[in-house]
């Protein structure tokens, strides 16, 4: 476009046409475009404004618009223009400092806050002295703007300046400084916070900072805030205490001692804190109730754990409550069966395991009874919870029921029962071995205990796996192959190799995978013989398994397979992956040749492997940015950015100008943002 055409397009009703005009500006870095750039910065469409910020940063200093940007941030009619001007000032950085400093002396006092905001967005520690100078201006609005700007700059210098304001006489300014310190997450020492605590206005804002100190001297102030008549202050105090315990886990004991002063009313309001408040407030309230041994704490805890899982601070508080918490969970929540009952049972088991010998035998027996009731009941969700929790508490008599439950269960439950049996076998190997010998397992059950059979029965397990290979169920035959791979040895290798000719494709693929897991290259020979199988999925699985074997003997056959050019996508993708894994000689040449493949999946596999061959392969990654296929270009963007090559930003910016696919554009924008962040 010519400058005249750009100007005309910027007045078009179609926002995409206006955005295209902005992109075209980069072709005409002349003075006339300064006016056009400012017009585009104030466009009604956010995508046009976003594109203008990018182009403006690219064109500077060819188009010097800094003075215009200062005017734009000070005007109040077009908020979009102001925000875009701020974004461009931030992108230009130090280049705008002199104009902004000059503006601070020239603009109307009411506009200084916008200039200070821009200075903070464009600067680092070097702008702190200017901001401090305006802190001392005496004008309340300017002081407030300078405090906000210091929070944006942050860093050691910004934090020091903000902490200095904490000693000022004006309570509102101290409060604003404290708020700014909270926004940057500063850890302000106790001796600087203590003088602020007698001012109710500042104290509310200082609560968060008190929590970050981890200083035990702050406990009294935090606990006293729980009795405040404001529900907001109580919730903030609970959140601060959660932060406090995270910062200093050893403070639980002195915190618990101080909580004796918390009255009935405050405890009731803590029990009312829930998911309508912030997560940190909710966690803090539950933590406090549990430290207070308040039964309502368990009710709140169950809701919290069901939604968010158990956080470390809550677990420590419940452990301090001890076996009484376990007792209450079993007594009040486990029955009747419900989603909350499942959380209660799992939480009770978690606490009992941590408490160990502190749990009385009678309570342990109750827990075991509830776990068995859940495991051998009819509710599948409760069965799964019980199976996952019973391992540390299982006894020899549980061996056979666990094996039976694994044998009649779906995969997830079978896996949980298998894990419980593994844990029990560490204590009672003979009992588990005997239980396994009494059951003929199939499907998911055999898969779940295959490793345990190998560990407990050794070579005797081979006969069980061999018998399972003769059963009709393909899932059982697959499980047997998995067990044989764990067992290893020549006979196991022979049985697995025979399964490559099984009537079920599922079993054939499992056989290939199992051969790839055998030690001592026992699986290489049968896999090589199967590289020319009729089934494309099987050839792909074999090619992948050869890479898993790690044998140099697989390199030439895989190379030949690649060079033949007769196979489909899946086979070539697997072959390339395996050659990469085997670090085959001349690999880069093969990968470069694979970039010419017609199949996008082959090209993407080659690009992925080339991405690890830096810097020699960067030019091939860069070339893929212009591939005709959007998904190849998208991957190329990711790999070029990951390479962190000096030319990467320029290449990606150039591609962004011409890229039309929305998904690829999104990838480009994200990649450039990350690279600029690194820079």
Summarize the structure.
This protein has 679 residues and is an all-alpha fold.
Keyphrases for this structure?
679 residues, 71% helix, Leucine-rich Repeat Variant, flat, mainly alpha, 43 helices
What does this structure look like?
With 679 residues, the protein is mostly helical. Among the domains are: 195-321, no CATH class; 607-679, Leucine-rich Repeat Variant, CATH 1.25.10. The chain has 43 helices and no strands. The longest helix is centred in the middle third of the chain and has 17 residues, at 231-247.
List the helices and strands and how they pair.
Elements: H1 3-9, H2 15-25, H3 32-41, H4 46-59, H5 66-74, H6 79-92, H7 97-106, H8 112-122, H9 128-135, H10 140-153, H11 155-165, H12 171-183, H13 190-193, H14 200-213, H15 219-225, H16 231-247, H17 252-258, H18 264-271, H19 279-291, H20 295-308, H21 312-321, H22 323-333, H23 339-355, H24 361-375, H25 380-389, H26 399-407, H27 411-425, H28 429-437, H29 443-457, H30 461-468, H31 474-487, H32 490-498, H33 505-517, H34 524-529, H35 536-549, H36 555-564, H37 569-581, H38 587-594, H39 600-610, H40 618-623, H41 630-643, H42 648-658, H43 662-678
Helix pairs in contact: 1-2, 2-4, 4-6, 5-6, 6-8, 7-8, 8-10, 9-10, 10-11, 10-12, 11-12, 12-14, 14-16, 15-16, 16-19, 19-20, 19-21, 20-23, 22-23, 22-24, 23-24, 23-25, 24-25, 25-27, 26-27, 26-28, 26-29, 27-29, 29-31, 30-31, 31-32, 31-33, 32-33, 33-35, 35-37, 36-37, 37-39, 38-39, 39-41, 41-43, ...
| Arithmetic mean of pLDDT | 89
Annotation, overall tally of beta strands: 0
User: What's the alpha carbon Rg, rounded to whole Å?
Assistant: 34 Å
Low-confidence stretches: none
- Counting H and I runs of at least 4 residues, what is the number of helices? 43
Rough outline: flat
Oligomer: single chain
Q: Largest sheet at a glance? A: none
- Given helix and strand content, the structural type is mainly alpha
Termini distance?
32 Å
Strand content: under 5%
Q: Percent helix among the residues?
A: over 70%
């Amino acid at each position: 476009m010519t400058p005249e055409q750009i100007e005309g397009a910027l007045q078009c009703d179609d926002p995409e046409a206006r955005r295209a005009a902005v992109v075209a500006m980069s072709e005409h870095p002349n003075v006339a475009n300064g006016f056009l750039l400012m017009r585009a910065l104030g466009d009604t469409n956010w995508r046009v404004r976003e594109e203008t910020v990018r182009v403006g940063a690219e064109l500077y200093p060819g188009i010097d618009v800094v003075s215009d940007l200062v005017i734009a941030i000070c005007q109040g009619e077009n908020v979009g223009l102001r925000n875009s001007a701020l974004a461009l000032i931030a992108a230009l950085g130090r280049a705008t400092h002199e104009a902004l400093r000059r503006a601070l002396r020239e603009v109307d006092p009411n506009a200084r806050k916008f200039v200070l905001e821009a200075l903070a967005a464009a600067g680092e520690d070097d702008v702190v002295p200017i901001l401090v100078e305006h802190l001392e201006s005496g004008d309340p609005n300017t002081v407030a703007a300078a405090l906000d700007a210091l929070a944006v700059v942050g860093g050691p210098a910004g934090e020091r300046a903000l902490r200095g304001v904490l000693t000022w006489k004006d309570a509102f300014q101290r409060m604003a400084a404290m708020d700014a310190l909270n926004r940057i997450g500063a850890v302000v020492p106790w001796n600087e916070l203590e003088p602020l605590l007698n001012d109710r206005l500042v104290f509310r804002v200082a609560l968060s900072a008190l929590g970050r100190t981890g200083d035990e001297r702050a406990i009294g102030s935090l606990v006293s805030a729980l009795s405040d008549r404001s529900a907001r202050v109580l919730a903030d105090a609970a959140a601060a205490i959660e932060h406090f315990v995270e910062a200093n886990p050893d403070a639980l004991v002195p915190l618990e001692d101080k909580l004796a002063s918390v009255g009935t009313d405050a405890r009731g309001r803590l029990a009312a804190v829930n998911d309508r408040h912030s997560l940190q407030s909710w966690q803090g309230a539950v933590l406090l109730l549990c430290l207070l041994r308040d039964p309502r704490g368990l009710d709140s805890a169950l809701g919290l754990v069901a939604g968010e899982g158990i956080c470390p601070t809550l677990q420590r508080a419940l452990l301090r409550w001890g076996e009484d918490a376990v007792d209450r969970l079993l007594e009040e929540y486990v029955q009747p069966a419900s989603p909350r009952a499942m959380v209660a049972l799992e939480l009770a088991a978690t606490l009992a395991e941590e408490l160990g010998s502190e749990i009385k035998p009678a309570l342990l027996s109750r827990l075991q009874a509830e776990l068995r009731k859940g495991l051998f009941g009819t509710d599948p969700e409760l069965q799964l919870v019980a199976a996952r929790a019973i391992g540390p508490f299982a006894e020899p008599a549980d061996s056979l029921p666990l094996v039976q439950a694994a044998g009649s269960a779906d995969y997830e439950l079978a896996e949980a029962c298998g894990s419980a049996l593994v844990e029990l076998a560490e204590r009672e190997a003979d009992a588990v071995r005997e239980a396994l010998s009494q059951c003929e397992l199939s499907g998911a059950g055999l898969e779940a205990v295959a490793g345990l059979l190998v560990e407990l029965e050794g070579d005797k397990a081979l006969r069980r796996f061999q018998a399972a290979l003769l059963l009709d169920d393909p899932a059982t035959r697959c499980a047997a192959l998995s067990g044989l791979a764990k067992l290893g040895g020549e006979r196991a290798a022979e049985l697995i190799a025979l399964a490559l000719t099984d009537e079920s494709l599922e079993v054939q693929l499992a056989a290939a995978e199992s051969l790839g897991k055998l030690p001592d290259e026992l699986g290489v020979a049968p896999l090589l013989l199967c590289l020319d199988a009729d089934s494309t999925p099987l050839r792909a699985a074999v090619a992948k398994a050869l890479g898993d074997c790690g044998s140099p003997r697989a390199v030439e056959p895989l190379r030949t397979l690649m060079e033949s050019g007769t196979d489909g996508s899946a086979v070539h993708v697997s072959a390339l992956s395996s050659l990469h894994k085997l670090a085959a000689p001349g690999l880069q040449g093969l990968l470069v040749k694979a970039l010419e493949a017609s199949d996008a999946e082959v090209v993407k596999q080659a690009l992925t492997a080339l991405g690890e061959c830096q810097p020699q392969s960067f030019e091939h990654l860069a070339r893929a940015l212009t591939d005709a296929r959007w998904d190849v270009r998208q991957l190329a963007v990711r790999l070029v950015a990951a390479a962190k090559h000096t030319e990467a930003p320029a290449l990606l910016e150039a591609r962004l100008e011409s890229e039309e696919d929305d998904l690829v554009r999104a990838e480009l924008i994200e990649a450039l943002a990350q690279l600029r962040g690194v820079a």
